[in-house]
Amino acid sequence: MCKNRGPGSTLLLFVVLIAATSQTGCKSWSERGAKGVGLLPQASPNETQFSSYQPAHPYQQLTTGLLGRKLHATPPEAGMPIEVNDFLVGPNQKTADYTLPSLAIFEIRTGTGQLKVGGQARKIATGMTFEVAAGQPFTIENESEVPIGIRVEILGSK
Question: Distance (Å, rounded) from C-alpha 55 to C-alpha 31?
């Protein structure tokens, strides 16, 4: 005849089983070691067979320190033309003046720094959004060790 055990003894049995299986699992894991193949061989100095891959929308230099790429543009028959771009400013870099033809909305995706529009400076950080008026020259100064990534929607561009 089985005796009815209390909840405390069932819990104790469970804890003992977990401890026993975790010890054997850890031991066997540490004994197995790495299964990798190691580092790739060093490329020779005259290696010329590079990848032929080219991104669909590569970055291009817009001005000193500022890279940009167009991701999307609405077709001309759409009511209001909209362009979606990505801007990139390298770590600890400062851009030269750059001007957009139409009103733009900036969304800071990575990095921190300072944006100067029309002589007025403002701090920028990841998650911030703001607008830059048409024809207003701006500069961006990256004050961090990571690139500043900005999604830019240009409204009413041609």
Answer: 43
